[in-house]
Design a protein that fits this description.
The structure is a homodimer. By secondary structure, the first copy, chain A, is mostly helical. The model of chain A has no long low-confidence stretch (mean pLDDT 95). Chain A contains four helices and no strands. Chain A has one domain (9-110). Chain A has helices at 9-40, 44-64, 72-81, 95-110. In chain A, helix 3 crosses helix 4. The A-B interface holds A 27, 30-31, 34-35, 38-39, 41, 44, 47-48, 50-51, 54-55, 58 and B 27, 30-31, 34-35, 38-39, 41, 44, 47-48, 50-51, 54-55, 58.
Chain lengths: 111, 111
Amino acid sequence: MESRESWSGSEKQTARRAFDAALEVALARTMAEFKSKANAATLPADMWEVEDYLRERRREIDRTFDYRYSQLLFVFAQLIRAGYLDESMLAGLSQDKRDAIRRDIAFFESR
Amino acid sequence: MESRESWSGSEKQTARRAFDAALEVALARTMAEFKSKANAATLPADMWEVEDYLRERRREIDRTFDYRYSQLLFVFAQLIRAGYLDESMLAGLSQDKRDAIRRDIAFFESR
């Protein structure tokens, strides 16, 4: 059983897979929203609003998807909260890592 | 006959009409290009490229469309060069203003 701080090879595989899947979801949702906004745009102001939307989404995705092992449990909690990741994808992580993620989720939810 | 520096009421009307028409052309072209790029986007990189495109276009339009009488002849020359404005829309300006615009256009073309 791995601790919170050390990551076994198979945990790293689990983490990478979950991280990549969540990123794909986040990008696909952004793409769908972007296409819908672009399609509905009729005025110049709508067009600039799409620019603002994309800039914010890009910044948020860059900020959230931080693949450092020191950050990863916190990142997974955020991704689950945001609906980008299903907790079941993290079944390959040690119990104490999953507990730490749940505590982070509970912390977000309490705010 | 008005000089290059002073603008009569009717010249101001001509200038405003030409400026607004050119802005409409610039925005309509940007909108068409934006819609086409958005429509063709399939990868996240395409989406971020649309963001970059919009940011550059917004910046360029903001910079180019400068309605100060001290800048306007130079601005009109740029707009004609960019294909946003037809010189015929400036027929209501004094001869020396139109000459100054032509000299600016010639200057751009010589570069």
